[in-house]
Design a protein that fits this description.
- This protein is an all-beta fold.
- It has three domains: about 1-60, Roll (SH3 type barrels); about 65-125, Beta Barrel (OB fold (Dihydrolipoamide Acetyltransferase, E2P)), CATH 2.40.50.140; about 130-185, Nucleic acid-binding proteins (OB fold (Dihydrolipoamide Acetyltransferase, E2P), Beta Barrel), CATH 2.40.50.
- It has strands at about 1-5, 10-15, 20-30, 35-45, 50-55, 60, 65-75, 80-85, 90-95, 110-115, 120-125, 130-135, 150-155, 160-165, 175, 180-185.
- The chain is flat, with a radius of gyration of 21 Å.
């Protein structure tokens, strides 16, 4: 158990029969009335962000979570097979736990987050940015930037479709943000 005075960004707590991570918090002591803590909480399973106010000194149940490094091996009908980088233990996880499963290549390292008390996998995060080769995209037409969106769809080596600028061609390597599937920049070799 911890109190609201122990709040930190990234702390995981049990709240409303679910796990939430504290994204942001602020201790407020108004001139009149009791002190309170204003928070933004992110649901670990759904990703939904909610606002909540706790009275100062309230006891909360802290959830222990562990981040473990894994390497992606392959995908089969059981799910995504991962191997722990240090212990070589292999596990299989379902696709719904991944934030960007369509950008995952064989051999990529990921970080799996587990509830330490129950050993339940909560979610799996890829690195913030990955480099991929464009396997197919329509050629960009010269002078075709007058339209409001100067982006075109491109298929990358894992089969995912990303919106890229018109100057990107088939065979180019691009950097992709795994959090929102957006184009970042062209990778120079």
């Amino acid at each position: 158990m911890a109190s609201t005075a122990d709040f930190k960004n990234g702390m995981c707590i049990h709240f409303k029969n679910d796990l939430y991570t504290i994204i942001q918090f602020q201790h407020v002591k108004p001139g009149k009335g009791p002190a309170f803590v204003r928070t933004k909480l992110k649901n670990v399973k759904t990703g939904k962000v909610i606002d909540n106010t706790f009275t100062a000194g309230l006891k909360v149940d802290v959830a222990r979570i562990e981040r473990r490094p894994y390497q992606f091996l392959y995908k089969d009908d059981l799910g995504y097979n991962l191997m722990h980088v240090e212990t070589y233990e292999q596990i299989s996880l379902e696709e719904s736990l991944f934030n960007a499963a369509d950008l995952l290549k064989d051999g990529d390292t990921v970080e799996a987050v587990f509830h330490a008390d129950t050993e339940t996998p909560l979610y799996v995060e890829l690195k913030p940015h990955v480099s991929m080769e464009v396997t197919y995209t329509e050629p960009g037409l010269r002078g075709d930037t007058s339209s409001t969106s100067s982006l075109k769809p491109a298929t990358v080596e894992t089969g995912a479709t990303i919106m890229v600028p018109l100057f990107i061609n088939t065979g180019d390597k691009i950097k992709i943000d795994t959090r929102d599937h957006s184009y970042v920049e062209r990778v120079k070799e």
